[in-house]
Write a structure and sequence with these properties.
This protein is an alpha+beta fold. The chain has a domain at 1-94 and 268-298. Helix content is 21%, strand content 15%. The strands form five sheets. Strands 4-7-8 form a three-stranded antiparallel sheet, with no helix packed on it. The protein is globular. It starts with a strand and ends with a helix.
Length: 384
């Protein structure tokens, strides 16, 4: 979860990193993030400003920019650590022992009251949701179709997931279902950033293998591996595993022939708050979609439309940068992975489609006294 960081005890590296953030803003960090901010402001800017977004900073003086460039300049000496490596998150860097709980620590310089808020958010991250109706009214609304009952079950110890072995099933990977535009109207929706792609007409945007009692899941992800010989640049030959993904025992008939299967491995939680605080102009200035500087890297920013405001902005989160903010990414995960509605994604039945009629008839977990969503604003505030 994000916690405000006071840089009164900050390191020299953190002071420079602070220049990369918008003026008059405190420096939030999500959960125990210690991601290093290393933005090169001297990179050539993109031609034009996409969707009206700036590609240059107006809130830094030339002196400030010079300081940032001096510190973030890539090293050429790899025989010794760089000065900032020990405290990559400034005064917020956790100094706890490196163990299985290393990614689950709060920022080192939050207050006692802020630590209490952190623990409440962490408890929500770990709690198991239950189906409706239930006596635990603040925890019901699960599904009806879902992949897991708690955030922690996929993001184990706040780290990333791991691909499963051959066979069926995984607790930290699911299949994204999508198809491309098939007519001019759909292509216009993509061009206008209204959608990223189109879901399967029956199974929706992701395969959900679990369901509440009385309903069947959508099917099971299956992975089969084959070995392939690959010749490396130095002539060495290695064996690499090539995965093949399929849906086993689809519960509601065949998938649309145009639907593609794309695996999604759960990402780590650490560092997201720092990414959210990087000024969009710094990211857009580094974009080089046509590799004009011939360094072999073609960075392409993903522009998305915010759910609530409708404004076009920079995507940052998710494997394809499809979410503009941590809050939106969390709302998408609540809806798709657990089947919980939020103000950002007010779908009380999660990813159920019109073709899954039984799913849409089941009760939801909305409590009027708490708000119009199963995870109302106070819950979203704590987990983001």
């Amino acid at each position: 979860m994000r916690r405000p960081i006071d840089f009164s005890r900050r390191s020299w590296r953190a002071e420079i990193a602070g220049l990369l953030l918008p003026r008059n803003r405190r420096y939030p960090i999500w959960r125990d993030a210690t991601l290093l901010l290393a933005i090169t402001l001297s990179a050539p800017a993109m031609a034009g400003e996409p969707a009206g977004l700036p590609t240059s900073r107006t809130d830094l003086t030339p002196e400030d920019q010079a300081r940032v460039l001096a510190v973030t300049k890539p090293t050429t000496d790899f025989t010794k650590p760089e000065p900032f490596e020990l405290m990559q998150g400034g005064a917020g860097t956790s100094r706890k022992d490196v163990n299985r709980d290393a990614f689950s620590q709060p920022s080192a310089n939050i207050t006692f009251e802020e630590e209490g808020t952190f623990k409440l958010g962490n408890a929500l991250f770990r709690k198991n949701w239950v189906s409706s109706p239930s006596s635990t009214q603040a925890s019901d609304g699960l599904g009806p179709l879902f992949n897991e009952r708690a955030c922690q079950n996929c993001h184990l110890k706040d780290g990333r997931g791991r691909p499963p072995g051959s066979g069926t099933g995984s607790t930290s990977m699911f299949l994204r279902l999508a198809r491309d535009a098939s007519n001019a109207e759909e292509r216009a929706e993509l061009a206008n950033h209204k959608l990223l792609n189109f879901p399967d007409p029956v199974y929706g945007s992701q395969l959900q293998d679990l369901a509440v009692p009385g309903l069947k899941g959508e099917g099971r992800m299956r992975i089969d591996y084959s070995e392939e010989k690959v010749t490396l640049g130095d002539g060495a030959v290695v064996l690499l595993r090539k995965p093949r993904y399929s849906v086993e025992n689809p519960g509601y008939g065949p998938l649309d022939p145009r639907t593609t299967l794309s695996p999604r491995l759960t990402p780590p939680m650490i560092g997201l708050g720092l990414i959210e605080e990087i000024a969009p102009a710094d990211i857009l200035a580094l974009a080089d979609p046509h590799d004009r500087d011939r360094d072999g890297i073609s960075g392409r920013p993903n522009l998305v439309r915010e759910e609530l405001s409708g404004a076009i902005t920079l995507g940052r989160f998710g494997w394809k940068a499809q979410a503009a903010s941590i809050r939106q990414q969390a709302a998408d995960a609540f809806a798709g992975d657990i089947g919980i509605s939020t103000p950002e994604v007010p779908k009380h039945w999660g990813d159920c489609t019109e073709a899954e009629k039984a799913c849409l008839t089941l009760p939801n977990g909305v409590q009027e006294r708490l708000g119009a969503a199963e995870a109302p604003p106070p819950v979203m505030d704590l987990v983001t």
